[in-house]
Specification:
Blueprint (H helix, E strand, L loop, with lengths): L13 E9 L4 E9 L4 H8 L1 H4 L10 E3 L2 E2 L11 E4 L7 H12 L6
Parallel strand pairs: 1-5
Antiparallel strand pairs: 1-2, 3-4, 3-5
Length: 109
């Protein structure tokens, strides 16, 4: 039902979400209640996770919701978990190849 201002009440509701980042030595998952209509980047900013991990470069790091890549301006839904992904240190195929070679005793020099 519209309010006196003409806006519907759902605009005033909040939704529960999470923002997650895993560094090499620390995992942080922040639970937040954010206003309905909050974007991915808005939730990251509200979480304060950048304060804990100043090395985060949100211009280059990929962001997803439950493993699915999303854009910064995508609007969140209730129970979404925003995940900030670290850059890969090594290509997974190369890592598997190296492990297989090591296991077979063919270590590279």
């Amino acid at each position: 039902m519209p309010s006196v201002s003409g806006q519907t009440n759902f605009m005033l509701e909040s939704i529960a979400i999470e923002v997650a980042f895993i560094s090499i030595d620390k995992q942080v998952i922040k639970s937040l209640d954010v206003p309905n209509g909050t974007t991915v980047i808005g939730a990251i900013r509200l979480s304060g996770i950048k304060d804990e991990f100043p090395e985060l470069d949100l211009n280059t790091q990929k962001i997803g919701i439950y493993g699915r890549l999303v854009k910064e301006d995508d609007v969140l839904q209730a129970e979404d978990r925003v995940e900030i992904y670290r850059a890969l240190i090594i290509d997974p195929k190369e890592a598997r190849r190296r492990r297989a070679e090591k296991k077979l005793g063919k270590g590279t020099t």
